Amino acid sequence: MTNTEVVTDDDWEYRRVQLPPGVSRLTATVQLSLQAEFSGWELSNVRLYSDGTRKIWVRRRRSSTAAGLLPGFIV
To answer: What residues does 55 pair with on adjacent strands?
Structure first.
C-alpha cells in the first residue's frame, strides 16, 4: 500500500490508501482484510480510476487511550 494519509475527527480516524494500477482485485482485498483483522480498520469508501489506481478510505474508532501505548497499559 502506498501514499497513506491520516485524518482524524472526534470519533473516527480515517486513512486514505492508494493502490497502484498493477494490483489485482484479489490482492487489494487480501491487503484490506489484513488491515481490518490486525489493525481494526473498516472499509469506508473505494474509488477505482480508469488507469487502474484504487483510492481507498478506511476508518476505525479513535481509542480513548493515549496514542502509542500498548493496550492495557496503565497511565
So the answer is: 18, 47
Confidence of residue 7 (pLDDT cuts 50, 70, 90): confident
Residue 62 is classified by DSSP as P
Task: Identify the CA nearest to 60 among candidates 40, 46, 30, 31.
Answer: 40
DSSP state of 53: -
Which single residue is written with the C-alpha cell 486513512? 15
Question: How far is the C-alpha of 10 from the C-alpha of 20, rounded, in Å?
Answer: 31
**pTM score:** 0.68
| CA–CA gap between residue 44 and residue 56 (Å, rounded) | 8
